[in-house]
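Q: Convert this sequence to C-alpha cells.
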Amino acid sequence: MNIKGIIKKEILEGIRNYRFLIIFGGLLFFAILDPIMNKIVMPQLLKSQFPNMTLEAINDMLASNQISVIRGYLEDIFEIGTIIITFTLSGIVAQEISEKTLILPITTGKRYGHLIIGKVLVYGSILIFATTTSAIVNYIYSGVLYDFELFSLVPLLRAGLLQGLYMIFVLSIIILIGSFVRKTISTGLLTLIIAYGTTFLGSLFEINNYLPAGLLSEGKLLAVIPSLGMFKSILCTISIIIISMIVAVIRLSNMELTRG
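A:
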C-alpha cells in the first residue's frame, strides 16, 4: 500500500475513533465560550459576589474589547487545548504498538517512514484547519459581542496558522514518545511536560525565538507585520518536527513489534 493508502487509513481511523470530532469540538467550544464568559457570565458572577464593585472595576478585571478576548482565547488554546489534543492523539503510535496493530502494515510492505509521514500529514492538516477555523469563529463571535477592532484578518490567520504549527510540534513529540513508551497515558503526560516545560523555559530565559513557544508569543501579538523572531521560531520548530520524526522512524525500525 502506498502513501495514499496510509493517509486513507489514518483518516478512517480518525473518524472512527472520533479524534477529528474531539479536536474540532474542543477548539470551537473555547472559540465560542470565551467571548460569552467575558461579556455575560463573568460580569454577572462578579457583580453577584461583589455587589459594591463598580462597572469600571469589573471591566478592568476582564477582557473588555475584541482584541483582549482573542488573546485570551489564544492563551486558552495553549493551556487547555494542548491538553485536549495531546490526550486525544496520544495513542496514535503508543496504542498501535501496544496492541500490535503496526505489525500488519509492516508485513504488507509499508515503511515506517511512510506510516509516520501519513500520520503527520493527516493529523497535522486537521490541527492547522481546526486552529485557523476556530480563530476565525472567535474573531466573528467576539466582534458581534464587542466592537470589531481588528480590521485585518491577516494577524488572525497568522495566529491560527502559528498555533497549528505549534500543535504539529506537539504531535511530533507524541509520535516520538509513543515510539518509546507503549502506555498512552504516559505518552500524554510526558508530552505535556515537554510542551509546557519548553514554554516555561523560553519565557524564563527569554529564548522563545528559538523554541516552538515563540509561535504562540508571535500569534498573540496580532501584529499586521510579523517580527523577525517569528521566522527563527518557525525554522526551529520545523527542525524539531523533522528530527522527532526521524528518531521515531529509527526507533520503530529497531523495535521488535511482537514483543509483549
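Residues 135 and 160 are 6 Å apart (CA to CA).
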